[in-house]
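Figure S7 source data.
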Amino acid sequence: MTFRCAVLGNPIAHSKSPGIHARLAARYGLDLQYDKILVPDGDFASIVQTFFASGGRGLNVTVPCKQLAAALAEVKTPYVQCAGAANTLWMENAQLHADNTDGRGLIHALTQVHHLTLAKQRIALIGAGGATRGVVLPLLESLPQQLDIFNRSVDKAQAIIAAHDSLSAVPMRAYALDAAPNTGYDLIINATSTGLSNAELPLAPALIADTQTTAVYDMVYGRETPFLRWAKRHGIAEARCFDGKSMLEAQAELSFHIWFKQEISAARHE
Ligand code: NDP
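Tokens for the predicted NDP complex:
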């Protein structure tokens, strides 16, 4: 049997998801057709409905459709509810379900791929867009000592903190991008899109707690971003600078496990 999955977005030609899912399908011996579907303005809901009505198994959703996906779903995980955005859709009990695997993908990448500790660490998130909204809850669940958000528009960082305030005892603060923080950080995560535009971030070097131990992660992948260059310029070794490829692969694998849990479980018991 050939299963059908796809990624929806606009633009979509650059997406690396088909290759990642082809490797996952090969690992579990599944016959998978995984397409990239360009979503013209206003067509998201009808594309999703047609896809599942014709027997599609699962959809990934990327920019700019993640909020639309969350709004369309009938059943949403807490990660979707918190982020207001979804990257994974599937049908279950005749209802459209949505999850957001970005945050758990990031946690997996940081802890399992790069072997970083998050508990009791001081973590700075740079950016307050959809990517940040998707990762705040899983980061809080990792029980850091502090989780602060720096953003060009500081009101957006404040809004994200206000939305999570009642969910966690972890202290959170909002700062402007160029603010001198009260503390240095053990982990600095860039969740802005500046890696794509090559724009420099006016970050204070005081964000780096210790050049020997602080690690930096840029969610943008496949290039040395201005943020990673900034970190290296301020003394962070190459070995503690990571890009978003590990998060991309981990969030994809989590989606794959949601869509194919029965087949994967059957393959493991063969
Ligand atoms: P959004 O458009 O929602 O948010 C963009 C963020 O970048 C905002 O915080 C914005 O600040 C900031 N920003 C943009 N340009 C500048 C600039 N010139 N100077 C300072 N800040 C700037 O994007 P997303 O949050 O959805 O995505 C962010 C990035 O994360 C994307 O590049 C995406 O590719 C990547 N990503 C990677 C994933 C992975 O698996 N590796 C998963 C998800 C996202 P402001 O609020 O002030 O406008």
